[in-house]
Structure to design on (202 residues):
């Protein structure tokens, strides 16, 4: 008998006569009451991200203002980002048409859209859809300015899961990249942007 067969035999023996696993209840809350846009803004800000509410008309100016405030002069953008979004930005635009990691690292920041946001958890989800680019684009530059449409904010994770395609490359963002793995000291910018800026377009 091989070691594998022996282990499986022991597992089968241990499970003989065991009661079946209880059915897991799925009647948990699937929505949240109240203003999900305001809740999302509060929860995203709890993660040390900057959140600004704006309108579609004021979006180009809001984008330019946040980029100036964060010293961004060389900005990476997805190739399909709406050009109107950066019409007020007077720095250098670098379209991602296959930029190398070194070229992305040489940019001051990145601007993207998003798939949706989850109010209860303050999480933003990217799925490489329109205006979002590939995953590396939002993980290498040290600053990420993300635009979230208010009508794409849902209350809970179950609501989000129903809208997202699990076959797409999903990136779930809850604040700037951070870890406390090293002696429980919080270090930001290890696995992604050190600074997250969010514009919610109402």
């Amino acid at each position: 008998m091989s070691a594998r067969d022996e282990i499986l035999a022991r597992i089968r023996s241990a499970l003989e006569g065991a009661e079946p696993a209880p059915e897991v209840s799925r009647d948990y809350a699937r929505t949240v009451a109240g203003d999900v846009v305001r809740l999302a803004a509060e929860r995203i800000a709890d993660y040390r991200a900057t959140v600004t509410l704006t309108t579609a008309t004021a979006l180009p100016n809001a984008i330019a203002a946040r980029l100036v405030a964060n010293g961004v002069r060389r900005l990476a953008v997805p190739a399909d980002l709406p050009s109107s979004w950066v019409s007020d930005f007077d720095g250098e635009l670098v379209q991602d048409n296959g930029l190398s990691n070194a070229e992305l690292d040489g940019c001051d920041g990145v601007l993207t859209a998003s798939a949706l946001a989850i109010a209860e958890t303050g999480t933003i989800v990217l799925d490489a859809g329109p205006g979002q680019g590939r995953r590396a684009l939002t993980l290498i530059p040290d600053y990420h300015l993300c635009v979230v449409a208010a009508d794409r904010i849902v209350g809970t994770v179950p609501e989000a899961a129903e809208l997202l395609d699990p076959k797409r490359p999903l990136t779930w963002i809850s604040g700037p990249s951070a870890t406390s793995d090293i002696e429980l000291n919080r270090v930001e910018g290890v696995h992604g942007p050190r600074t997250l800026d969010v514009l919610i377009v109402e």
